[in-house]
Amino acid sequence: MAERGLGAVSLAAVAAQAGVSGGRVQHYFRTKQELIEAAFERANQLATARIEAHSGIDDPGVLLRVVLTQLIPHDAVTELHMRVRQSFTALGLADDAIAARLRSQYADLHRRLAELIAAEQAGGCISAGTDPHAAAASLVALAEGLAYYVLIGVTPAKRAHEAVLTALERLHHAG
User: Fold this and answer.
1) Based on the structure, what is the number of domains in the chain?
2) Residue 19: alpha-carbon gap to chain centroid
3) How would you label 25-52 residue by residue, b for 16+ Cβ within 10 Å and e otherwise?
4) Domain of residue 115, residue span
5) Within the chain, what is the greatest distance between any pair of CA atoms?
6) Minimal CA–CA distance to 86: which of 71, 100, 65?
7) Residue 104 domain-assigned?
8) Domain presence at residue 31
9) Structural domain includes residue 2
10) pTM score, two decimals?
11) Mean per-residue pLDDT for 22-26?
């Protein structure tokens, strides 16, 4: 998926890339849809693990910055993960099952980030008039939009990171 896009994914192509028989792949995945859904789950697990590696951070502002900047590719591994994620996002436009999963995941991500923003509000770092849920959704949209720009070569990763950090600074200066 990351190398050739979702259109190139087939049970036979995956078997060839893995160096196994088509029957072996079909033993685990009866259809292309099952294969794609399993890849979707794996990509999400990897992204979650990357973010959870920083879960020991107690400062909500630092954790907010870490999570948002992890949404932007910054090395070969995160670029691969983001290419797959962006492919699934595009697939969600035509696949109701993927779209439902994306909505659920975004709701959870927005909720978690809104909690961090609310904690920053309680500490006086962000204005009490800021809607944490709206701010969380806007920050995620900014980070993921910039991630897409990084992946297609419109914006360098460093500039995308700086833009997200600037948006966070503006949110904090509003407090």
Assistant:
1) 1
2) 29
3) beeebeeeeebbbebbeebbebbeebbe
4) 37-173
5) 59
6) 71
7) yes
8) no
9) no
10) 0.82
11) 85
